[in-house]
Amino acid sequence: MPGPSDHEGLPIKMLNDRILVRTDSEEGERRSTGGILIPATAQVGKRLAWAQVVAAGPNVRAMEVGDQVLFNPEDRYEVEVRGHDYIILRERDVHAVAAQRLEEGSTGLYL
């Protein structure tokens, strides 16, 4: 029976409405606008996080590779692909999309 290491180097295709995203920071850590590092252990209310789409399934309609997406970090599946950590989300679990291509007809909010 093949193990996980037997599949290294194979192409990966996301299925259905799944997206593969990469976060920019360590788990839970973030920086304030003044540059202060806020550790993951700091107690805060439910906080959404931004991540970049690196792959999307064929049924994903509202986002593309390279877009930034807003999601709840508590509702996710983590996976390691070729030594890098990623998160798998369903399109319905994404709360917002930020992309340059959305500029026309946008809400006027910018990252």
Walk me through what this model shows:
This protein is mainly β and 111 residues long. The protein has a domain at 13-25 and 47-98: 10 Kd Chaperonin, Protein Cpn10, Chain O (Roll). The chain is built from no helices and 8 strands. It has strands at residues 18-22, 30-31, 37-38, 49-56, 68-71, 77-81, 84-90, 94-98. The strands form 2 sheets. It has a 6-stranded antiparallel beta sheet with strand order 6-7-1-4-5-8, with no helix packed on it.
Oligomeric description of these chains: single chain
Low-confidence stretches: 1-6
The percent range for helix content is under 10%
N/C terminus separation: 47 Å
SSE string: EEEEEEEE
Tell me which CATH architecture of the domain at 13-25 and 47-98 applies here. Answer: Roll
Described by the principal axes of the CA atoms, the overall outline is globular
Secondary-structure content class: mainly beta
The amount of beta strand, in percent, is 25-35%
Could you give the order of strands across the largest sheet? 6-7-1-4-5-8
CATH topology of the domain at 13-25 and 47-98: 10 Kd Chaperonin, Protein Cpn10, Chain O
Radius of gyration equals 16 Å
Total strand segments:
8
Tally of alpha and pi helices: 0
- Overall pLDDT: 80
Say which CATH homologous superfamily of the domain at 13-25 and 47-98 is assigned: GroES chaperonin
CATH class of the domain at 13-25 and 47-98: Mainly Beta
The profile of the biggest β sheet is: 6 strands, antiparallel
